[in-house]
Amino acid sequence: MDLFHFQDEKYSSTLFVLSLTIILSAIIYKITRKNTTSAPEASGAWPVIGHLNLFSGSSDLPHVALSSMADRYGPIFTVWLGIRRVLVVSNWEIAKEIFTTHDVAVSDRPKYLAAKILGLNYASFSFTPYGPYWREIRKIISLEVLSSSRLEKLKFVRVSELENSIKSLRNFWSEKRDEEKGKVMVDMQKWFGELNMNIILKIVTGKRLGEDEKEIKRRRELFREWFHYTGLFVVADAFPFLGWLDLGGHERTMKRIASELDSMVGTWLDEHRNERASDESTKEKDFIDVMISAVKGDNLVGYNKDTIIKATSMTLIAGGIDTMSVMLTWTLSLLLNNRSTLKLAIEELDMHVGKGKQVNESSINNLVYLKAIIKEALRLYPAGFLGGPRAFSENCVVAGYNVPKGTWLLINMWKLHRDPNIWSDPCEFKPERFLTPKHKDVDVIGADYELIPFGAGRRSCPGIALSLQMLPMVIATVLQNFELSTPNDEDIDMTASIGMTNAKATPLQVLIAPRFPERQIDV
């Protein structure tokens, strides 16, 4: 999450407002620091703004800056973002204590501007407070979209969309390839994004992207903007009394994104209702159909029925598209930067699946090395390096330190996953580590706290099962169907971007050529 990203712009405001702000903030700053049994507080905080000065203008992304601070202050420490106290944890044992002993207490989300606007006043299950409403929406999602039985029933969507995307990639190669070298350049980050968008849209809305390139691009940009801004901590979050100024215009931009998405999903909702009213629809029920039937009444916890359906659908679509694309992009990037691992993965495919048969979901169980590659990629590059922010709903004692109610919580997975006491050569990409007795049983589902790419506890990512089906299947299909290389055999740039999910900052440009004659994906 981009908790420390402020644009370096000069804003004008009255001397009176600024003076009053400084005085009020200084008073709050002193009052909130009287607890001497709190976790170590990082030095360098300034009056009023806290530790924001340590990050403004810094070339390091927040997770890297916080990792450096952990080297100085230990695996649990506090920083201040204006008046907000933030507990930063980068140790698996402390994370385990938090997500077991204090799991209910840290199942809340902090309330900040982006969550309010883009979460439709916290109607989105990603941002809503922990309680009956969240539990009910999570239950519907878990049973109707992400349960094992439902995922099996929706297998045809994944298979058909993957098959269509592979065919499109082959057609693109056939039309655009270099006649001399037999290869064509493809932005695989974009390809992953469109594949995932079609799959998630089909599951949630029953629709595909269509053929309009302009519309496809706009929708991808819109969902990417949603994720960028949901991870943006703006001036008004550090100083709520300055919210009316909208410094930087971020609130205006967030409202524009929310309005566009609300209109898009609202159109789909109207179409579903019209189909149901006509009694002519024979299509397979999608998630919007399920929500129309499941959500009763028109005033649930202050939200009307349409708001609940739109907020939930919007979050599922944006989350499914963005996080899956991010993880696939990092995984392929790591393979292209480690050609020996890439070669071993292809050899495993040829050995256990064969060159005459297309890999399918049942084949994945035999691809032990590929599954180790996925685990290692998730260790080094989880979709969100700081996970989803939490908020303590009551006073707690964590690792012997008093943590007051209202404190925000960040788990620095970037640092936690690189603990040299757990992982040898922690910054190196070594899938083989998950084939050794020490790590072969370590899983990513949130029960082994040294590896929690999807988070842990009640508020962990609900899409773990879908991700663990999609990631190896898509990577295996790409590796089996295409020879992959980079221009001039250069390494892939691994710079991450800022946001709720840390996407690759630059396009993943890959040279491709088919390995075998065209064939169907075996269902």
CATH architecture: Orthogonal Bundle
Strand order of the largest sheet: 1-2-7-4
CATH homologous superfamily heading: Cytochrome P450
Q: How many separate domains?
A: 1
Radius of gyration: 24 Å
Uncertain segments are 4-16
Portion in beta strands: 5-15%
**Tell me, what is the CATH class?**
Mainly Alpha
Count up the helices. Answer: 17
Kindly report the average pLDDT value.
Answer: 87
Give the CA-CA distance, first to last residue.
38 Å
Globally, the shape reads globular
CATH topology: Cytochrome p450
Q: What percentage of residues falls in helices of 4 or more residues?
A: 40-55%
Class based on secondary structure composition and strand pairing: alpha+beta
Extended strand count: 9
Give the H and E element order.
Answer: HHEEHHHHHEHHHHHHHHEEEEHHEE
**Largest sheet features:** 4 strands, mixed
Protein described:
The chain contains 17 helices and nine strands. It has 523 residues and is an alpha+beta fold. It has a single domain, classed as Cytochrome p450 (Orthogonal Bundle). Helix content is 46%, strand content 7%. The strands form three sheets. A four-stranded mixed β-sheet has the order 1-2-7-4. A three-stranded antiparallel β-sheet has the order 3-9-8. The chain has helices at 15-31, 62-73, 92-100, 113-118, 132-144, 148-153, 155-176, 188-205, 213-230, 235-238, 250-278, 287-294, 305-336, 339-352, 368-380, 413-416, 464-481, and strands at residues 76-81, 84-89, 184-187, 390-391, 396-398, 401-403, 408-411, 482-485, 509-514. The longest helix is centred in the middle third of the chain and has 32 residues, at 305-336. It is globular.
